[in-house]
Amino acid sequence: MDLTWSPQEEAFRAEARTWLEANLAEWRAACGGAPASGDTREGFAQHLEWERRLFEGRWAAVSWPEEHGGRGASLWEWLIFEEEYYRAGAPPRVTQNGIFLLAPSIFEFGTAAQQAGILRRMAAAEDLWCQGWSEPDAGSDLASVRSTARRVDGGWVLDGQKTWTTRGAFCTHLFGLFRSDPDSERHRGLTYLLVPLDAPGVTVRGFGRLDGDEGFAEVFFDDAFLADDAVPGGVVLGEPGQGWKVAMATTGSERGLTLRSPGRFLATAERLLALAARAGDPTLRRRAATAWMHADAYQQQTLATVTRLAAGARPGAEASLTKLWWSELDVELHRLALDLLGPDAELDGPWSKGWQFALSGPIYAGTNEIQRNIAAERVLGLPR
Amino acid sequence: MDLTWSPQEEAFRAEARTWLEANLAEWRAACGGAPASGDTREGFAQHLEWERRLFEGRWAAVSWPEEHGGRGASLWEWLIFEEEYYRAGAPPRVTQNGIFLLAPSIFEFGTAAQQAGILRRMAAAEDLWCQGWSEPDAGSDLASVRSTARRVDGGWVLDGQKTWTTRGAFCTHLFGLFRSDPDSERHRGLTYLLVPLDAPGVTVRGFGRLDGDEGFAEVFFDDAFLADDAVPGGVVLGEPGQGWKVAMATTGSERGLTLRSPGRFLATAERLLALAARAGDPTLRRRAATAWMHADAYQQQTLATVTRLAAGARPGAEASLTKLWWSELDVELHRLALDLLGPDAELDGPWSKGWQFALSGPIYAGTNEIQRNIAAERVLGLPR
Amino acid sequence: MRFALSPDQEAFRDAVADLLAKACPPAAVRAAWEAPPGQLDRSLWGDLAGMGVLSVLVPEADGGLGLDETYLVPVLEACGQAALPHPVVETAMVAAPLLGADIGIVTTDLGGPNLPCAVDADALLLRCGDRLVRADPAAVALEPVETVDRARRAARLAPGADLTDAEPVTDHPAEVGRALDRGALGTAAVLVGLAQAMLDRTVAYVAERHQFGVPVGSFQAVKHHLADVALALEHTRPMVWRAAWTLARDLPTRARDVSAAKAMANEAAERAARAALQCHGAIGYTVEADLHLFLKRTWALTRAWGDTAHHTDRVADALMP
Amino acid sequence: MRFALSPDQEAFRDAVADLLAKACPPAAVRAAWEAPPGQLDRSLWGDLAGMGVLSVLVPEADGGLGLDETYLVPVLEACGQAALPHPVVETAMVAAPLLGADIGIVTTDLGGPNLPCAVDADALLLRCGDRLVRADPAAVALEPVETVDRARRAARLAPGADLTDAEPVTDHPAEVGRALDRGALGTAAVLVGLAQAMLDRTVAYVAERHQFGVPVGSFQAVKHHLADVALALEHTRPMVWRAAWTLARDLPTRARDVSAAKAMANEAAERAARAALQCHGAIGYTVEADLHLFLKRTWALTRAWGDTAHHTDRVADALMP
């Protein structure tokens, strides 16, 4: 057991902190002081500027190999960067669905040509990727996807509809599952496709999320033609018909470490402490201490997990527990913030926005009800 | 809407209060000051003295007709009596399984001869009835009862085992379900039988409950012979083979109003307030106020229910909500008491006993998980 | 003892509920999100006034119905069930007993700094030190605020707003206290109605929505979430009705009973909102589904007219003086 | 950074766990319920001493292992998992660093008024004003108390017990503070072990117990109860290990880290106890099943060495000075 950072890691932290401070100040100034939400049209453009700045500083995807725009950072350094990122008050990553959800699958299943053609542009925020999992009748039950991909000469013809696609209206590309074998059922006969949203026959309609921003989109495919070379290296990730396997690797990332690092919640907890310290109510003060403990526990648990991963372990079903923890922690932190704000909790602002965003946590990436089933069955071994 | 008591009801309350004060003092003095728990052998005998005293004062079963030892009290008066009973600090009723669980079924399904032969002796604590529902493999799943009753000349031959029979080791009679049709399954082919525990072939073994008292028993039936006239009016309640219907009426009572009147919890909440007022911790103070509100809400909800019942409504699936409320309220009240006691919560005493007893509430009479299913399916109409 | 609405009380409540079912569907609530200041639906308000909803607590001699809170509270529940955007608690429950009948749309700062429907109000009932005053919205500096629930149409008094010209209403502490309790209880009733509406909508949704080949509502976890809401409501509504009785009779337990009602209504509505959103899933997480109208009202009202901590402390003070 | 036990730490923990699996089954815990005063199993205690468990924190020069809390805390978890009745926290974690190796069974009143295993102790470590003293149990008036967990074998100091002849141990506030933190953290570790044991036993039980024709563990409600326990444990154990590191290095975050560990261990163990009993049903509600041994220990230890409120306030004070 050794809970200290090495001098190299401390140096990495210092470099990240310095860069973030300077660049955040510059970016904010360029946005006229207060950037808009990244889930609005105006704000998205501003956030792209931020993403490009990150890429230029080689901070867009620190854990990636240098050839793809990263700096080959260790998992530890990635954690440190995330901590510094949120401590500095840097904005949510509008590129996150590509970098944290698609990219791990590209590293695992993509050809060298796909990796070379996709990753660097993704890190540079030149291609903007959104997720195409959910359909109107396939939410938690992902295996019931009905959108189809029909093999034709030189490509695929896509039909169907995806929905609840985060920031879909602002993105350039979609990754998702399509039923390529019309006679298949459930998780068989699905193909994982990479789809430029400007392909003929694709229509995107943005719509309002709970927080009022146009953060969701529906994507319609009407005999859309997806040419085999519409994406460098090819539009199929993995093998045709093997989409479920590839997707599961991606949803594993979504639930686990990469989507929500502890740094984000620690930063929220610190802001909450400042609010609670001013409030003076002893019960709220106690609740604030408890919420901080839960954020800190997430950090400690992550250090234990990363120790295992660094020693070569594969992420397992424990990722379900992680997803339960951070999503419910986020609700706890923001509920307390609203209770601290009292009658002004109803005002539109960072805490009320954060509250509404937090409420999506227990729903997306597999509802928490499903995560609890998974934890019980696969971690504890209870009968199905 | 009229939330006042009538002068008659107030007079009834005053009479009950006066009688309880005087008689409790006398009984306690007769027990040498502090009676033992009614779930121990010594204490059970003391509590029988109390029950006989109640019967002599016509307080043993206030809502029963006078001919059976009651005073024909209205549901309102019954509520008032319960409130006064627990406010006075009177002990839990060791006769409760007969008076509150069996008797409603006897009133509904019993013949005149059974009513005449059973009820008055029950109220007088001459016959002491315990419940014979659960079996080692039939807990929540009551319909999986395996104990059998075989029809023979002049009676029934019983085989099998009942368990978790509260105070079984101290009782004289058992009521329960037996499979009388050997080819039947689930809730068909069951007969509701009334069984003297001194019948040949019946063995009772007491064993310790969580709180250490010998409050549970196993009852073994080995070719036990139950003569048709072993109980006045006959040993079958309702028709042979119709036991499930009769039992459901009884478990309805168990879940609902008659088992746990609000008076008991209001009295506990009042004692808790006294404890919290001394403690000074603002969070515990707030929790005490909340617990009191929940007890008070049970009282108000009961008044609304009794208003409906008094107007002729039948108790419905809402009884599930009632059972959820009082059982979780009881846990809440006692957990808070232990938190108020701090390190001395571990001492054997009324609060730690009460805590352990409270923990049985969410388990018995149908676990709270099953009650929530019933509430969702039958009150809200969700699909099975 | 009769813990139930009288036939009169029930008929009144049902009549208002029928009106709201027709005149205040979710589309009407959405309209209040978008309507410019001053353009809140006056026709519906007129209908409510016509039915006497706004003057229940005004003596008959003064043109009111001359009834008490046990009549108004069930009606406010119905208003909550429809997520009615108008300030009916502020007008009918709080202002009318002080200002009389036919006062138009009235709002107040007694429930908190953000005055609901302040951009539409005909009159303001304001706290001025220990007094209550009536002010003309045109004569008082109001600053609109952006609320998560835009149907709140709220504004707050500008710092240092001048109330010297405002008309005195009362400086009697008991009257001020009663007004505060009326606002808290009325809001509790609205919250019970909101919770019921969220429960009903969710029950309907999970019965119809299928995943994994079965209705979502057949999963035990979903059943338990919704059973918990039903459980809370079953034990909260009687607390609200009882407090109406206490308030109507001005019994000595008023502070305790009103605060217990508001604290429990806050908790029940918050639980209902949480369960409703979770059981709706992603569909509930859009502004295209109507659910969000109810969620956002709930989040505002649980912290208006005193939050749970405030009212719990008040109960504690009454019980453990 | 390496947040995991070293091979040494793991081997030590596993060796103790193996011993306890053999020498401290539930029957041994039951024996401690019934054994007369002074008759607590000395052979097992001797084995623990022989393995060095009781002198982990004693310098090698003084006959101990000369190791730190990161070695002892995982072992205490194993002790909790076996519901070991002996005062291993009091002796090994609290007394040994102050009194040295080979001190027999030592108990203390630092964790609360009820001294565990006081009826068996060879020595008492007592608070006397601001000082700590060592007393001979024969020379101090002790009154046995009846505890729900009879394996606690507790007694308390008689009012006005005379400590004038007791041997001074320390009057250094830092040493007293460290002893208190060691007791709290050791108890947190025991609670994590108890919680793990209750979870494991319940998982095994619900897989085997059938109702309605299926294993009880296949019901979603049961799954969710137990997933919640696993969730709490997964995030509590690292807090306990981290606090061991903090304590070993005497870092400035000691109060915060130790109290966070105890507060979270309290909550995790309480949750585990609640879920374990509920998922066992009536079988768990008997003294014939072993579960109650773990439940009752949990209820005692969650409120010993500072309850959740105490430790949460301490975290709050550290975070919001």
Features:
heterotetramer, A: 384 residues, alpha+beta, Butyryl-CoA Dehydrogenase, subunit A, domain 2, Butyryl-CoA Dehydrogenase, subunit A, domain 3, 3-stranded mixed sheet, 11 helices, 7 strands, globular, C: alpha+beta, 4-stranded mixed sheet, 10 helices
Summary of the model, kept short:
Chain A is an alpha+beta fold and 384 residues long. Chain A has eleven helices and seven strands. Chain C is of the alpha+beta class and 321 residues long.
Structural description of this entry:
- The complex is a heterotetramer, with 2 copies of chain A (384 residues) and 2 copies of chain C (321 residues).
- Helices cover 48% and strands 13% of the residues of chain A.
- Chain A contains 11 helices and 7 strands.
- In chain A, the strands form 2 sheets. Chain A has a 4-stranded antiparallel β-sheet with strand order 2-3-7-6, with no helix packed on it.
- Chain A starts with 6 loop residues before the first helix and ends in a 5-residue tail after the last helix.
- The relative contact order of chain A is 0.09.
- Chain C has helices at 7-23, 26-34, 42-50, 69-81, 88-99, 173-208, 220-249, 254-280, 291-301, 308-319; strands at residues 106-108, 123-128, 131-135, 142-144, 155-157, 167-170, 210-211, 214-215.
- Chain C has a domain at 173-319: Butyryl-CoA Dehydrogenase, subunit A, domain 3 (Up-down Bundle).
- In chain C, a hairpin with a 2-residue loop joins strand 7 (210-211) and strand 8.
- In chain C, the strands form 3 sheets. A 4-stranded mixed β-sheet of chain C has the order 1-2-3-6. A two-stranded antiparallel sheet of chain C has the order 4-5. Chain C has a two-stranded antiparallel sheet with strand order 7-8.
- Chain C is built from 10 helices and 8 strands.
- With 321 residues, chain C is an alpha+beta fold.
- The chains are: A alpha+beta (384), C alpha+beta (321).
- The interface between A and D is large, with 47 and 43 residues.
